[in-house]
Amino acid sequence: MKLVTTFISVLAFPSTFRADSYQHFVQGDNLSSDTIPTLLDETSNNRVVQVKNVLPKSTSSNDIRTPLEKTGIVPIGTKTYVAGLRTTVDGTNFCSASLISPIHLLAGTSCTLEDIRWASIGSHYVNGTQDGEQIKVVAILTHPKSLRRGFTYDFAVLVLQKPSKFTPVALAKSDDSDVTDGEWAVTMGWDDDEGLSQMGYELFRSNVQLMSNSNCAKKTKVTESLLCSRGAASQTSCSGEYSGPVVVERSSGDVIVGLVTWGDDCDKPGYPSIYSRVSIARAWIDPVINGVCFH
């Protein structure tokens, strides 16, 4: 299913601009002309918005890492690559995202159906500006194979107006070597309250055990772009965590292997939770964050 193209404001585009070729452009207040999309690449298979002068000049290190803890509230200041997406600078997050370069966030495509204007990066809380940093989102790209039905290739890359000061999370290798059947991973987001689809106030983590797709297929339909897990006891991924990162915690640092997508039954043991598999999207993500689509 093709997602509906959304324009936040009316802009004067060159005559060669194809409105159906780009997914979603977000214009913040007082953006300079250098951050307004120009021409689309007519030869690209991506839904691309070209954005000028957004490559980072510098970034400071804030690389705080912790060992695996039990399910619960994330200690403040430890997982600062997690971001919340919102409409206003101090508003409430409606989706989670992950910082994968100083100016790029990785999120699920369904998030782009909302009015994304701001990202709150490194913040512990679901709303407000009391910690972390709030940066405008200037452009969004969705994976060219993304389909809402079945959450196939459920990936979007968001471009920030300026570099974040926080350290990005490492991406899973394209050969899928960062994913092991039976390995423990962590999902994060502003978890809902006991499966009631209400966003929590503090950043929450759940420990989950990764499954091979062959084992997952015994429970539910799964494709190559998806990754499965079974929760510990009653722990699965509920709606409040949508688009949040699934990470494996290594001594060298966290590695994002998936994005939360859906669960067959929230908080029921034995039912798989389904994630988007990051490794399969590296061939698309890497050129985007390395500047191929932005000049």
TrEMBL record:
SUPFAM superfamilies for this protein: Trypsin-like serine proteases
* Location of this chain's protein in the cell: Secreted
Q: Name one GO cellular component term.
A: extracellular region
Keywords, alphabetical:
Disulfide bond, Glycoprotein, Secreted, Signal, Virulence
What is a single Pfam family found in this protein's UniProt entry?
Trypsin
Put simply, this protein is called: Peptidase S1 domain-containing protein
| SMART domains on file | Tryp_SPc
Q: Name one GO biological process term.
A: proteolysis
Task: Tell me the GO molecular function terms.
Answer: serine-type endopeptidase activity
InterPro entries assigned to the protein according to its UniProt record, in alphabetical order: Peptidase_S1, Peptidase_S1_PA, Peptidase_S1_PA_chymotrypsin, Trypsin_dom
The positions making up the signal sequence are 1-19
Q: Could you tell me which residue ranges the Peptidase S1 domain spans?
A: 81-290
Q: Which organism is it from?
A: Peronospora effusa
